[in-house]
């Protein structure tokens, strides 16, 4: 039976009584859980969890607290364990020592149809219709007990052998009935004819299936359903991933009643013991008992004389009974991932066995004599055993073995010449230095990732068709390679080959040759026509290619010669007519000029052309027009000034990448019918000439790095449909940056989808994290899902900020950040997962002599590399089963099934990920954490995902970034190189340029001036004391194309800092404020930052809140004489110093203005922002978000994806930032105030308000100076106000602003009355 409960079992009134309410109100840590199956109501202890009475026997509400353990609940209920229910029908056994997250990952794949429809149970009219969630899953109809949800009790109706009939009395209604004497019936009324037909068609297929085959896997079953007991002809039963029990009417002890059963799958049921009742089903031919924690196999296994396939993988077995040797028909035996120290001797008696799987055991020595005695054994799998020796004591030949898998062991030498019938050998990732084989029947050889210098095969393997010798130490190819007559695929990449034999390229059988990453300086000439189709010669030292390459290799379709020294390419033919079939050509990273483009005309079938990072000054227009089949063109990193207009003749072009050039005119590509991606970043674009309409296929446009580009409002509206639009934000400066922090680091990043349809890589980049002299960067790679990387991008920065409040130990706050982010993934993290890399640059503010440190944490395959003294320093650890021996041992110890492609359960090759909860405990979210102190020898930091570092080595990545000054252009180049080297997956890179050293410190020791009148201190931000322990929050958790640095130059700050008068005359020497650098900031500094320049809308170009029909002024519209402006100030109020002294008494009143914020935190306001910026109070009433959404200039910007293709949660703050970024820039207005101080901007008491102010201060001892006194005291308008007067009057203005002017303070907003 299926154990499920329903939240509707108890009514709302009776679910919680007075006792329950009193219990919950007593302590915030108290709660309740629902337990099923109890009938007794024990009295609760005085201080422990309590149990309330219930009205039904199957549901009990138990009161408990956050400290209540499972042991206490079990002891109270007098049971051995508990069942955990999650989302209605996901159940797992919870014992005292075995607690694990429940999952049901496979059910989603089995769901065929789902929807919410009107449902009625039974054939009588007494039952009422109700809307319920209905699923057609596997071979069953599932009806939920509540609407729009799968929580609660699930009604399962098996359809195999049942009926699906049309109900003529109702429109679009079907009747579903199960088979058997106790058949049940459900009526489902569909909304549309299409739904009706779709469900009828699918359900009819299930009904027509014979009852002989039943699949009940992943249904959380404890017993076999009762209706199956009437099926005497059942032959195949799949009960995988359930919780089957031995006892009970439907337990495994009653399985022998299925007398015709041939196939039984009981894997992943945690049985603990071998169910002996299975041995009574004498008709079984296939039995699967994998992953059940069994220690022994009973002797009764010998009864199954018809058994042909037996799977016992993933258990705790270390021996087999002698009775197993009597199974004469057993042909396949699975013993992988057990504890066998050697091949069991009982297998010698299995004369019919031809396949033995013993991967992941503890076999260290392989005796070939044992294999010789197994006369029928052909296929042996001994992966992941820790094999060290393969011995052949006698000269006896092993004639029957044809396939041998020895991957991922510790073999140093391997001599298999005695296995004379060997056809397929896998010996990758060992430590082989010598390999000797018999070549009589050898067909396939995989020996990559070893230390081979030569391979001895005798006789010549004339049957050999595929050979992989990549990542070895070969300096030459053996002679027998050229003598082999049938070699079709040869992979010798990543070796030390200096030449290739001429006979190899002239082979009449070779179709695919991979010889990249060697030391080749030339290729031999082709003597005759060859069938070569794929040729990869990247990362060599080739100066030229054979002249006859293209017209001798007429079948050549793929050629990659990137990263060589080519100055010219051979012609496509000897005559004007070309027979070339070349489709993909990669020429990146050579020395080609524009003359080579003329030689490409003959390749008229060319679909992909990469000529990035060459020496092209132009591309001939007439030549480009002839490449009509071109689909992807990459011309990045050249010296092009324009893209020929003839590119419009390439009607199939869908990708144009031309970043890092000198292009000033936007190419005519936006009207191409299939264009999808255009990357023209890091160029010199000034304007874009657009057609009247854009094609709907364009989904990504990158225009970053074009400093002179100005987009009109019409252009932004035309781009509104583009999914990913990347634009620059005009950089700004703040007071903190004016002291040197802006020079500490800056970043650039790039994300490319490659040939995938979606971008599954996301980037986190925050240059100003925490106290404005910290930074956080991250890369998240979801492999084939985009949901988890986007969630991590949006949340992980905030989680890190919260964890920093609780601990300053790197391993603690980083581990907690990853674990909390893992938890926040919710249901998305049950089945999906992602690799994650997080880098945090920080320092200890309390130590003036301290410098910055870099803390790196990662799970999965994303990596970080630091360039120190020009050399790469890897900082992360790759958690891949192929690259981490420790992780491989851990996963093996937990009895996970590792498939032949080294993936855990065939899902992922990573042993640590965020997400993929259903793979626990094999895949964990625990990160690797490392902290590295930064020094002046550290130049930059590179972050990348797996695809990047698979194609680009650490050393090449460092050399690439060193050659490019701009971090954004460097990141672009890394991704472009990875794609040109053959990467077809998503690739992402972040480059952080570091300028940290002793010369970065700009601190000055405080000293006194000798003059009687100071010239005035440098402009200083208004100091506001922050409480100790306040969080340091990032400005954004997402990597937006234009990072919001919230910077203001010193001149802008000086123009906006108000000059005030004081009631005290300065006398004696004046102490100049201590100037502090960003390395050693003042502990009490609190900075509000603003986004100038680009956030001002022009009144004649945008909807600024004052339409032509409106007569009354609107909020957020500021009228300044003849000018009309809308100010959108974005204040990053979340930045706070985490430590500092307590507030001074004179700042007490100032702190009252922030008393509405709990725990001293500042709330980010969307429509109205109040901020103390650069010494003055700004009260800016922006437009409501609803108004922004209605604006034609901004409505298309809401709810869009961010520039990196990632979707941020629909928060108004994010939308406001996007609107400000993508608004047209204005060259005049409030934010472009003159650098010098304007007397009109000084914060003094106006003469008209002097009387009101004096009345307010009547009775106080302090007096405010008049306007004339201030002017007389401070001298000419150009003079600076002394610092004490400035601070005093600012405090006065903060205290009395709302009493003087018609504004009120309410929940952090300034609202006009």
Automatic annotation (TrEMBL):
Annotated Polar residues bias: 1034-1061
Biased composition range(s): Pro residues: 1015-1031
Region annotated Disordered, chain positions: 1005-1075, 1141-1161
Name under which the protein is recorded: PH domain leucine-rich repeat-containing protein phosphatase 2
GO molecular function terms attached to this record: metal ion binding; protein serine/threonine phosphatase activity
A GO CC term assigned to this protein in UniProt: cytoplasm
Record's bilayer topology term: Peripheral membrane protein
Keywords, sorted A to Z: Cytoplasm, Hydrolase, Leucine-rich repeat, Manganese, Membrane, Metal-binding, Nucleus, Phosphoprotein, Protein phosphatase, Repeat
Keyword Transferase belongs to the record: no
Ranges annotated as biased composition (Basic and acidic residues): 1062-1075, 1145-1155
Organism: Oncorhynchus mykiss (Rainbow trout)
Main subcellular location: cytoplasm
Superkingdom of origin: Eukaryota
Compartments, record wording: Cytoplasm; Membrane; Nucleus
Record's catalysed reaction(s): O-phospho-L-threonyl-[protein] + H2O = L-threonyl-[protein] + phosphate
Enzyme class per UniProt: hydrolase
The PPM-type phosphatase domain, residue ranges: 746-994
Cofactor requirement: Mn(2+)
Record EC number: 3.1.3.16
Function: Protein phosphatase involved in regulation of Akt and PKC signaling. Mediates dephosphorylation in the C-terminal domain hydrophobic motif of members of the AGC Ser/Thr protein kinase family; specifically acts on 'Ser-473' of AKT1, 'Ser-660' of PRKCB isoform beta-II and 'Ser-657' of PRKCA. Akt regulates the balance between cell survival and apoptosis through a cascade that primarily alters the function of transcription factors that regulate pro- and antiapoptotic genes. Dephosphorylation of 'Ser-473' of Akt triggers apoptosis and decreases cell proliferation.
């Amino acid at each position: 039976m299926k154990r499920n409960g329903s939240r509707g079992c108890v009514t709302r009134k009776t679910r919680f009584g007075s006792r329950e309410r009193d219990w919950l109100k007593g302590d915030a840590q108290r709660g309740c859980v629902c337990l099923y199956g109890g009938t007794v109501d024990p009295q609760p202890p005085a201080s422990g969890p309590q149990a309330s009475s219930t009205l039904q026997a199957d549901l009990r509400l138990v009161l408990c607290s956050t400290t209540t353990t499972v042991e206490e609940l079990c002891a109270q209920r007098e049971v051995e364990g508990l069942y955990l229910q999650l989302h209605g029908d996901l159940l797992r056994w919870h014992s005292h020592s075995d607690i694990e997250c429940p999952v049901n990952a496979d059910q989603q794949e089995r769901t065929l149809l789902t929807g919410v429809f009107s449902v009625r149970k039974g054939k009588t009219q007494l039952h009422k219709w109700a809307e319920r969630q209905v699923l057609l899953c596997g071979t069953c109809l599932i009806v939920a007990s509540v609407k729009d949800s799968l929580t609660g009790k699930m009604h399962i109706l098996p359809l195999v052998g049942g009926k699906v009939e049309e109900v003529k009395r109702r429109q679009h209604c079907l009747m579903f009935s199960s088979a058997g004497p106790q058949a049940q019936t459900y009526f489902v009324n569909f909304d549309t004819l299409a739904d009706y037909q779709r469900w009828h068609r699918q359900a009819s297929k299930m009904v027509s299936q014979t009852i002989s085959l039943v699949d009940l896997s992943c249904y959380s079953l404890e017993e076999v359903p009762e209706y199956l007991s009437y099926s005497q002809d059942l032959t195949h039963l799949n009960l995988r991933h359930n919780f089957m029990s031995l006892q009970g009417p439907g337990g495994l002890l009653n399985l022998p009643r299925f007398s015709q059963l041939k196939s039984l799958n009981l894997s992943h049921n945690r049985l603990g013991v071998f169910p002996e009742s299975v041995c009574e089903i004498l008709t079984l031919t296939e039995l699967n008992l994998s992953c059940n924690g069994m220690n022994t196999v009973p002797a009764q296994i010998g009864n199954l004389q018809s058994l042909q396939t037996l799977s016992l993988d993933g258990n705790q077995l270390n021996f087999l009974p002698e009775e197993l040797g009597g199974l004469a028909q057993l042909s396949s035996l699975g013993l992988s991932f057990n504890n066998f120290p050697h091949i069991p001797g009982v297998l010698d008696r299995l004369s019919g066995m031809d396949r033995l799987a013993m991967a992941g055991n503890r076999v260290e020595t392989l005796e070939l004599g044992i294999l010789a005695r197994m006369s029928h054994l052909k296929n042996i799998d001994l992966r992941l055993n820790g094999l060290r020796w393969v011995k052949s004591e006698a000269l006896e030949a092993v004639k029957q073995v044809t396939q041998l898998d020895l991957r991922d062991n510790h073999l140093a030498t391997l001599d298999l010449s005695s296995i004379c019938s060997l056809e397929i050998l896998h010996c990758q990732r060992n430590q082989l230095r010598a390999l000797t084989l018999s070549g009589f029947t050898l067909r396939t050889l995989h020996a990559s990732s070893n230390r081979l210098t030569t391979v001895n095969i005798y006789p010549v393997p004339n049957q050999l068709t595929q050979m992989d010798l990549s990542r070895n130490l070969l300096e030459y190819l053996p002679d027998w390679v050229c003598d082999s007559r049938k070699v079709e695929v040869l992979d010798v990449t990543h070796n030390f080959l200096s030449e290739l034999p001429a006979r190899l390229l002239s082979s009449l059988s070779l179709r695919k040759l991979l010889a990249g990453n060697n030391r080749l300086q030339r290729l031999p000439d082709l003597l005759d026509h060859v069938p070569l189709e794929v040729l990869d010669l990247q990362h060599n030292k080739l100066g030229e290619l054979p002249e006859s390459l293209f017209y001798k290799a007429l079948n050549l379709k793929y050629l990659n010669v990137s990263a060589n020294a080519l100055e010219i390419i051979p012609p496509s033919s000897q005559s004007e007519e070309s027979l070339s079939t070349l489709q993909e050509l990669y020429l990146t990273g050579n020395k080609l000029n524009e003359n080579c483009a003329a030689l490409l005309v003959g390749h008229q079938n060319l679909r992909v052309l990469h000529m990035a990072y060459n020496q092209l000054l132009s591309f001939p227009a007439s030549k480009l027009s002839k490449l009509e089949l071109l689909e992807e063109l990459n011309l990045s990193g050249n010296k092009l000034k324009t893209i020929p207009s003839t590119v419009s003749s390439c009607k199939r072009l869908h990708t144009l990448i031309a970043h890092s050039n000198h292009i000033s005119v936007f190419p005519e590509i936006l009207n191409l019918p299939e264009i999808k991606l255009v990357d023209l970043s890091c160029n010199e674009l000034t304007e874009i000439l657009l057609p009247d309409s854009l094609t709907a296929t364009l989904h990504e446009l990158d225009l970053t790095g074009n400093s002179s580009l100005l987009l009109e409002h019409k252009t932004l509206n035309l781009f509104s449909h583009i999914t990913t639009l990347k634009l620059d934000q005009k950089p700004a400066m703040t007071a903190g940056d004016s002291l040197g922090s802006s020079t500490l680091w800056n970043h650039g990043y790039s994300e490319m989808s490659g040939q995938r349809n979606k971008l599954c890589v996301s980037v986190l980049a925050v240059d100003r994290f925490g106290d404005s002299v910290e930074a956080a960067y991250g890369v998240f790679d979801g492999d084939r899902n985009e949901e988890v990387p986007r969630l991590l991008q949006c949340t992980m920065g905030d989680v890190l900020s919260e964890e920093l409040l609780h601990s300053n130990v790197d391993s603690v706050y980083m581990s907690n950040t990853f674990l909390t982010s893992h938890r926040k993934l919710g249901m998305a993290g049950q089945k999906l997962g992602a690799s994650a890399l997080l880098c945090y640059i920080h320092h200890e503010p309390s130590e003036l002599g301290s410098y910055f440190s870099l803390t790196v944490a990662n799970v999965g395959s994303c990596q970080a590399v630091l360039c120190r003294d020009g050399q790469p320093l890897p900082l992360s650890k790759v958690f891949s089963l192929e690259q981490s021996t420790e992780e491989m041992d851990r996963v093996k110890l937990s009895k996970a099934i590792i498939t032949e492609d080294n993936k855990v359960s065939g899902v992922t090759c990573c042993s640590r990920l965020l997400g993929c909860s259903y793979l626990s405990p094999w895949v964990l979210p625990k990160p690797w954490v490392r902290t590295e102190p930064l020094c002046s020898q550290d130049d930059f930091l590179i972050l990348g995902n797996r695809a990047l570092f698979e194609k680009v080595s650490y050393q090449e990545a460092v050399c690439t970034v060193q050659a490019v000054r701009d971090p954004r252009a460097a990141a672009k180049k890394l991704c472009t190189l990875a794609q040109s080297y053959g990467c077809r997956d998503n690739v992402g890179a972040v480059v952080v340029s570091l300028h940290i050293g002793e010369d970065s410190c700009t601190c000055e020791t405080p000293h006194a001036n000798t003059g009687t009148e100071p010239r005035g201190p440098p402009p200083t931000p208004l100091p506001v004391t922050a409480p100790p322990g306040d969080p340091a929050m990032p400005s954004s958790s997402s990597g937006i194309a234009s990072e919001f640095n919230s910077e203001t130059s010193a001149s802008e700050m000086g123009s906006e800092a108000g000059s005030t008068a004081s009631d005290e005359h300065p006398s004696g020497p004046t102490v100049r404020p201590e100037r502090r650098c960003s390395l050693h900031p003042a502990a009490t500094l609190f900075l509000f930052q603003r986004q100038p320049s680009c956030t001002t809308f022009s009144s004649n170009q945008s909807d600024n809140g004052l339409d032509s029909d409106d007569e009354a002024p609107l909020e957020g519209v500021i009228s300044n004489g003849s000018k009309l402006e809308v100010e959108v100030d974005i204040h990053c109020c979340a930045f706070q110093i985490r430590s500092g002294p307590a507030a001074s008494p004179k700042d007490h009143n100032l702190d009252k203005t922030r008393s509405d914020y709990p725990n001293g935190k500042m709330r980010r306001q969307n429509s109205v922002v109040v901020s103390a910026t650069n010494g003055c109070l700004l009260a800016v009433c922006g437009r409501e978000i609803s108004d922004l959404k209605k604006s034609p200039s901004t409505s298309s910007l809401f709810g869009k994806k961010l520039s990196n293709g990632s979707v941020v949660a629909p928060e108004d703050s994010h939308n406001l930032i996007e609107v400000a970024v993508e608004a047209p820039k204005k060259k005049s207005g409030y934010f472009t105030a003159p650098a010098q101080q304007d007397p009109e901007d000084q914060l003094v008491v106006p003469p008209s308000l002097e009387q009101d102010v004096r009345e307010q201060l009547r009775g106080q001892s302090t007096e405010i100076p008049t306007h004339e006194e201030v002017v007389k005291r401070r001298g000419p308008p150009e003079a600076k106000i002394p610092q004490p007067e400035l601070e005093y009057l600012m405090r006065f203005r903060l205290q009395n602003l709302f009493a003087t002017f018609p504004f009120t303070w309410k929940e952090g907003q300034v609202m006009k009355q």
